[in-house]
Every structure is written in C-alpha cells, then in structure tokens.
Write a structure and sequence with these properties.
Globin-like; single chain
Length: 154
C-alpha cells in the first residue's frame, strides 16, 4: 500500500460531530492519564518502547490525543497519514518497536469504549480501527523512508 492509498482510505472516515468532539475535549486529559496507567503496568513495556523511553511514551500519548482532537474537528486525510508516518519514523529511530503501535491502539480503543458514550465511541472508533489495520503499511512505509535516510515530516 502506498501513501496515496492510505490517504484514499482515510477519506472514507466519518466526521466526528460537535457534541462528541466537545466531550472528547473535556475529558482528554483523563484519557491520557488512563492510557499512561494502562501502558505502565504492561510486563512487556520495556521491550516495546526501549530503555529510558517512558517519558517519551507519555509525551506521545499526550500529543496523540491533541492531534486526534484536531483531526476529529477538521478531518484532513493527508495530515493524518503524513503525521502517522512521521511518528512511526521518529519513534522507530528511538527504539520503539512496531508492537507498541498495536498495543497503543488496543489500549485507546478499550479506554474509549469505557469512557465515552456509545454514540461518541461509534464516531471515534473508525479512526482507530483504520489506524490499527494499517499498522503494517505504516511500518513498511516508515521503514522504507528510514532506509532512504528520510526522517523529516513528509
């Protein structure tokens, strides 16, 4: 799959409605706290993020929630794909393993299922399902760009 294919599939993602976006914005800090707690207790955390990367993982979670809030507010498939590719390259270069992304997506989905209303969950879940099923493609494209020496945001 190419970057352009990923962008085309991202265009089909739904627009999150304002009431759900408002709720998400109000509880995003709690969502990040829950995410950090959930990940910190994993027995395989060091294998996924590498040594001395706990603060970087927590920064990623905080940045992720703010980024997704902006995508929910104003969907941009190009920005979504390019940012994910940049993140995969940047964190891979800091020893995060590809298994971290699947664990992260699973954890966000579980947290959202518990913390959001069913209506909001149904609007947000497609973005996470899309990211989750495309992890192998993001990994492949990010690794290709790393091998070429590209580390900048596309």
């Amino acid at each position: 799959m190419t970057r352009e294919n990923l962008i085309a599939t991202a265009k089909a993602l739904p627009q999150v409605k304002k009431p759900c976006l408002d709720t998400f914005a109000q509880i995003k800090d709690r969502l990040v706290d829950l995410m950090n707690q959930k990940m910190e207790v994993r027995q395989d955390l060091q294998e996924m993020i590498g040594p001395h990367n706990l603060a970087m993982m927590k920064d990623n979670h905080a940045n992720h929630i703010r980024f997704m809030e902006s995508i929910f507010a104003e969907k941009s498939p190009e920005v979504l794909v390019d940012t994910i590719l940049w993140v995969f390259r940047a964190y891979r270069s800091r020893n995060f393993s590809s298994t971290y992304w699947a664990a992260q997506m699973n954890a966000w989905i579980e947290i959202y299922r518990k913390e959001l209303s069913d209506e909001c969950y149904q609007q947000i879940y497609p973005f996470y399902y899309w990211m989750q099923i495309n992890i192998p493609h993001f990994n492949k494209l990010a690794e290709e760009n790393l091998e070429k020496g590209y580390s900048e945001h596309v």
